[in-house]
Design brief:
Layout: H1 2-34, H2 45-51, H3 53-69, H4 73-85, H5 87-90, E1 94-95, E2 109-115, H6 117-120, H7 131-143, E3 147-154, E4 156-157, E5 161-162, H8 163-171, E6 175-183, E7 186-196, E8 200-208, E9 211-223, E10 226-234, H9 242-249, H10 251-254, H11 258-291, E11 297-302, H12 310-316, E12 320-321, H13 322-326, E13 329-330, E14 344-348, E15 353-360, E16 371-377
Parallel strand pairs: 2-3, 10-11
Antiparallel strand pairs: 1-13, 2-16, 3-7, 4-5, 6-7, 8-9, 9-10, 11-14, 12-14, 15-16
Helix pairs in contact: 1-2, 1-3, 1-4, 3-4, 7-8, 11-12
Length: about 375
């Protein structure tokens, strides 16, 4: 009888601990939801909860299932309630196929955004592009974009490889605007680039304070009788080193040395914090440029941040997200270990464009997967 009584005491204690853990997860989940509204340069702790937001959602699902199985339905409501409240935010990570999406419109505008990682520059040999770079060009030809936004563009090697000519050859996009990184008064051979099927009537650059490498370009494009403004942006990178990625991908092994584990963990957290803060400032500046545009807007680029982030929320503003309206399934666009999930986007004016389709091309030719959207432009006279 004594053994039975001891067993009965342990089970309520376990449930109590489980309930406490559930409360902690709910609070963190709420902080992750609030991260979209709280600038990291004012309070950065919420940004970390925002990064963990989808994982916290899964934890809440697990808690809800546990309480339902154990007959504690009223406790399960705690997790179920916060999941319902945040349902629209979760739609930025996963979109169920509802059958409401339209097929790609052959007369629509095919928009492609792709961080090409310098076209695999460091694997070129004897001034010949690598196999990955060659496959990237073939992929561009297969997708047949009308508007192509490239981040981490590289011009090639002078007199040996001309990337611009190759892109025009494979895509047929003759109109271009290439914006180079400028440092110490000199243009570098890398930056961001836009290629268009239609003429460009104006171009410009949005520079970010104290950062010559990450910036935004915009191009005014004449399509029929309409002019649209296309923004191509590359926000602040986390700047993880190779050692950082190795640490993240093999955490179990690294935990064996607690001192090294603590040091490396702190270094990674500091890099994330710095990037969160920088992107907050950059996103506010970009948002001002978007809101002041005299033309309908399309925004493409590598935000280096997730759909629950302040940067994404600030930039998207009144714009529609092509994935939310035309995509389905999971949306991970980063091919590395961290940050996972969706960090590459195609956003568009909610009144002048509609998204017929959205897709992520799962080709591991860079550390990013390209994203493609087919957009319909509502003409002025319609």
């Amino acid at each position: 009888m004594t053994a039975v009584k001891k067993g009965r005491r342990k089970f309520p204690l376990f449930k109590g601990l489980f309930f406490t853990a559930n409360l902690i997860v709910v609070v963190l989940f709420a902080m992750g939801y609030a991260a979209a509204y709280i600038p990291p340069d004012r309070n950065w702790i919420f940004a970390f909860a925002g990064l963990a937001f989808p994982y916290l959602a899964l934890a809440n699902i697990a808690f809800a299932i546990f309480w339902l199985i154990t007959g504690k339905k009223y406790i399960a409501l705690l997790s179920v309630s916060v999941l319902i409240i945040s349902w629209s935010r979760l739609g930025g990570y996963y979109r169920f196929h509802t059958g409401s999406g339209r097929p790609a419109d052959s007369t629509g505008i095919n928009v492609m955004s792709y961080n090409v990682r310098l076209f695999d520059l460091y694997n070129w040999k004897k001034n010949k592009i690598s196999e990955n770079a060659a496959r990237q060009f073939q992929l561009l030809a297969e997708q047949k974009p009308d508007l192509l936004c490239i981040q981490e563009y590289h011009a090639g090697r002078s007199g040996k490889v001309d990337i611009c000519d190759s892109i025009i050859k494979y895509t047929g996009l003759k109109h271009k605007y290439i914006a180079h990184v400028s440092m110490d008064g000199k243009d570098k051979p890398y930056g961001i680039a836009v290629f268009s099927r239609w003429p460009l009537t104006g171009t410009g650059i949005v520079r970010f304070e104290d950062n010559p490498v990450n910036f935004c370009q915009f191009s005014d494009i004449l399509i029929g009788q309409d002019t649209i403004r296309l923004f191509n942006v590359h926000l602040e990178s986390i700047k993880f080193s190779r050692e950082d990625y190795l640490f993240v991908t093999d955490l179990r092994k690294n935990q064996e040395d607690q001192e090294v584990f603590a040091e490396n963990s702190l270094k990674i957290l500091q890099k994330l914090k710095r990037a969160f803060i920088s992107r907050a400032r950059q996103s506010r500046k970009l948002s001002e440029e978007i809101n002041s545009s005299p033309y309908p807007v399309i925004v493409c680029g590598d935000f280096n941040d997730t759909p629950s982030s302040y940067a994404y929320h600030t930039i998207s503003g009144k714009l529609n997200d092509a994935f939310r309206t035309g995509g389905q399934g999971f949306s991970q666009t980063y091919a590395g270990a961290l940050p996972s999930f969706r960090i590459d986007y195609i956003l568009h004016d909610e009144n002048r464009f509609s998204a017929n389709s959205f897709s992520r091309i799962r080709e591991p030719l860079s550390d990013h997967y390209p994203v493609v959207a087919n957009l319909s432009l509502v003409l002025k006279d319609e």
